[in-house]
Structures are given as C-alpha cells and as structure tokens.
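Issue 218. Parser rejects a valid record. Input:
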Amino acid sequence: MDTHLLRTFVTVARLGSFSAAAAELGYTQSAVSQHIAALEADLKTPLLGRRPVAPTEAGARLLDHAGPILLRLAAARTDLARLVRTPPERLLVAASPGAFGTAAARALAVAAAANPRARTGVRLLAREAVAGQVAAGEVDAGLVSGVAAPTDPLPGVGGVEARRVSEDPLAVLLPAGHPLATRPGLDLTTLADARWIDAPACPAPLADLRAAAGPGAFPPGPVFEGADPAVLAALVAAGHGLTLLPLPAATGFPGTTAVPLTSPRLVHRVELLLCGTPTPTTGTFTQTLTTPPP
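Output the parser choked on:
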C-alpha cells in the first residue's frame, strides 16, 4: 500500500471534498482523484462515495488503521533524522489541558539544571494534537491526560511510546445544595440523565465519559471551549450542568461540592509520550517524571 495514496485518502475523507484535499496537499484535483482510484484498485474495493464524498464501510475500516500507520511513519522518519544530525539543545514539552502539573514542572526544572544550555518550554495543545507533534519531532516529549478505566489506554496516542505518569481518582462537581451533594460517593449511572457541561479541552472531557459509560448517556448542557477549571466550576455553581474533575483539583471552588466517583472504576490518567531515542535532556526529564518519589 502506497503511503502517499493513503495520506491522500485520509485528507479527502477528513475534508469531505476532493478539491479541498487537492488545495491542502498541493495537488491538482485530477491527481487526487487518480490517487483514490489507484488505492481502490490496489485494495479491490470502493473506499469513498462520491455524492456526498464520504467513506464506504471499507473506507471507514481503513481510516481506523490509517491514523496509527501514518503516525508510525512520521515517528520513524523523525527517529532516523535524529540519528544523522546533532540533537538540539532543547526540551520542548507539548501538553494537553490538565496534563502538565507540579510534577512535570519539577521534572522540567531538574532537566534544565542538568543542562543549563538547553532551551526549555511548554506548548499547550488539544490532546489529539500532542501525539502528532511528538511523532513529527516538533516537540521532544508530550503529556496527555484523560479519563479511562485503570487498565485501558488513553485514546489517540497510538504510534508513539506512552508511559504512565500518574492516576488520580475522579470527583463529580455539583452545585452546593444539590440533593446528592451530601453523599460519600456517587455511581455515575445515577447521573446519566443529568445535564453535563461539554468541555472538550478540560481534564475530563464529556467524550471520555461517554466512551467509558456507553453511547446515549450524559446529555450535554452548554459548551465550554476553554481549559480554566475555575470557569468550569462557575458554570456548575450557577446550575448550567455537572462536570467531572480529578479529585485533587476539584475542591475549593465557591458554590460547588466535589463528591468522589465510586462507580464505575475510572481514573484521571496522565501519560508521557515519547518518540525514538530521547536526547540526554529529555532523558533526564523522563526519568525524573516517571520515577516514584521516595
């Protein structure tokens, strides 16, 4: 399978348009059509419907595999490039909201002290963008967080190495005075019909909750397109809906009560993403961050 054809297919499927894909990839529309036809001929099945432009059943199945394949290729290219050039004196960490905390800041300081010439920095990104930047070598390490069962991986990190950094229990953030606010713990199924704030950039996004509990649950309330937990808590306090936060970060917000989530068994996990052989500075950061404190 030609990866150039695969990349063209993914772009057309994402944009839903041959012409838009041609513009993004720098090809003519005719060349894009030829790429798709060649890929379909190779796999001996139609991959895209034409009106509207949308994946067929086979195309949807291929898309499930295409992302990790292309990510692994980008990771391999980056790893090989590092072998033939002098590693930069740099430690740039990409992090999704809620992933870069006190432990990561301390590890960054330790790495900077070990190599004073290194330029250090943190880049805040959406979770789905972090793995791609690590694989492409745009950053030296990534930190992502999300909600998952203790034995399940976080979604969207295939193709790069993932190491567990931490796991914290979760809490449901309720308005003060809510009928369930005095309970010692909550079963999420009792709140499946409640209104939830849709905050995709926050540490425990509603999409993760639905993935863990099944489709159809947790009707969304207002959309919050930010990452500040104080704003999210203010929306909860005003009665706009509920949210889920890591328990250590869920207390102290005016007008709210944090009740631990007891069922199902879900945690807020932070994972470190790496690609290839790390530079010495990145290695120091990694070791410091993943070594349990004494």
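Fixed in the parser; the record now loads. The two ends are 50 Å apart (CA to CA).
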